[in-house]
């Protein structure tokens, strides 16, 4: 496939991305006890495979207060950099205070997290982002997508609060924006700040695409450098349709997620300026060298994800390291004897 856009470099602040392909954050079950050889080899192999940006899987913000773990993360960022890719890491906040499960609005039998407790959340993201910078990463991504903690605050479907963190869009946006501002203050200007957001359209009792556009504009004003829109596709529509609507309204780069395993779909999304970067998830689980093969015009050699969800999601749910039923080497890179 002849590509004009997929392999075009992108300069974002101080970071040069060698192409427009992103490895998105995907929980691997390889980092539960620390950053061992399996995780190091897993990420290094995908960086060697040619991606421009690796976003390491979601890690709880409290883990970044562990100095030993942060030192281990420095080894990981180093492996990714040596292989030629930029490195970011995703920051995740659980619905827990201390050891107590809490809820957004008092659902599920758990008490509602208080406004006073929520006021401390932005500094947790700030501490984690600063530690990620100290660990040698080029950037950190705040996880505000897929119905998890921050995304639950944004959605009126799950946010029934009547305090500063609920109600109209301003209240529902507050925690995400405060977290972004706090992280930006903590890391300064020489560090990339990303935010992952799920855009929606036509979801009963949910938020609108107009809400997402307004929120993303505020995130950019708050210091977010890259918006990661996941998923980026309208239901039944073209790839990156939702991301395209947001891209038109912001001046920062936008990542599109979903259906980009197809090189032609990725190229089309970039050439139409629907997005600036394409995230390839399960495609990189199946074949770490997807980028190199596309660049060499050897798309026929790509080990294709069959969307069976057995080696990836199936193992994830079982609590074991992920891999791929189509590729026995996936997840086992650390077993090689080189």
Can you tell me about this structure?
This protein has 338 residues and is α/β, with parallel strands linked by helices. It has one domain: TIM Barrel (Alpha-Beta Barrel). The protein contains twelve helices and twelve strands. An eight-stranded parallel barrel has the order 3-4-5-8-9-10-11-12, surrounded by seven helices. Helix 2 links the parallel strand 4 and strand 5. The relative contact order is 0.14. The model has no long low-confidence stretch (mean pLDDT 96).
Please provide a brief summary of the model.
The protein is 36% helix and 15% strand. It has 338 residues and is of the alpha/beta class.
Low-confidence stretches: none
CATH architecture: Alpha-Beta Barrel
- State the strand order across the main sheet: 3-4-5-8-9-10-11-12
The rounded distance between the terminal residues' Cα atoms is: 32 Å
What's the arrangement of secondary structure elements?
Blueprint: E1 10-12, E2 15-17, E3 21-23, H1 37-48, E4 53-60, H2 67-82, E5 86-92, E6 96-97, E7 100-101, H3 115-118, H4 121-134, E8 139-144, H5 149-154, H6 169-187, E9 192-197, H7 209-221, E10 226-229, H8 241-247, E11 254-257, H9 263-271, E12 277-279, H10 282-286, H11 290-295, H12 310-318
Parallel strand pairs: 3-4, 3-12, 4-5, 5-8, 8-9, 9-10, 10-11, 11-12
Antiparallel strand pairs: 1-2, 6-7
């Amino acid at each position: 496939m002849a590509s004009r856009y997929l392999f075009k470099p992108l300069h974002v602040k101080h970071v040069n991305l060698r192409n427009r392909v992103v490895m998105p954050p995907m929980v691997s079950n390889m980092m539960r006890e620390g950053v061992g050889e399996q995780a190091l080899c897993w990420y290094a192999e995908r960086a060697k495979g040619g991606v421009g940006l690796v976003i390491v899987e979601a890690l709880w913000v409290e883990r970044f207060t562990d100095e030993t773990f942060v030192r281990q993360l420095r080894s990981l960022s180093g492996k990714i950099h040596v292989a030629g890719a930029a490195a970011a890491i995703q920051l995740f906040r659980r619905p827990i205070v201390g050891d107590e499960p809490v809820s957004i609005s008092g659902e599920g039998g758990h008490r509602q997290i208080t406004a006073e407790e929520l006021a401390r959340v932005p500094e947790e993201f700030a501490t984690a982002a600063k530690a990620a910078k100290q660990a040698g990463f080029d950037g950190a991504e705040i996880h505000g997508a897929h119905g998890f903690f921050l995304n639950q605050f944004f959605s009126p479907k799950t946010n029934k609060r009547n305090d500063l963190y609920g109600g109209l869009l301003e209240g529902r946006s507050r925690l995400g924006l405060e977290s972004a501002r706090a992280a930006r203050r903590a890391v300064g200007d020489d560090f990339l700040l990303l935010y992952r957001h799920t855009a929606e359209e036509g979801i009963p009792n949910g938020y609108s695409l107009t809400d997402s556009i307004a929120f993303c504009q505020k995130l950019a004003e708050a210091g977010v450098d890259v918006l990661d829109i996941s998923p980026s596709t309208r239901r039944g529509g073209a790839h990156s349709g939702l991301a395209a609507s947001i891209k038109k309204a912001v001046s920062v780069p936008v990542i599109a997620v979903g259906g980009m395993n197809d090189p032609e779909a990725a190229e089309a999304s970039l050439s139409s300026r629907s997005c600036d970067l394409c995230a390839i998830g399960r495609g990189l689980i199946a074949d770490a060298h997807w980028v190199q093969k596309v660049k060499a015009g050897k798309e026929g050699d790509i080990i294709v994800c069959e969307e069976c969800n057995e080696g990836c999601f199936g193992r994830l749910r079982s609590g074991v390291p992920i891999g791929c039923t189509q590729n026995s080497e996936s997840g086992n890179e650390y077993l090689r004897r080189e």
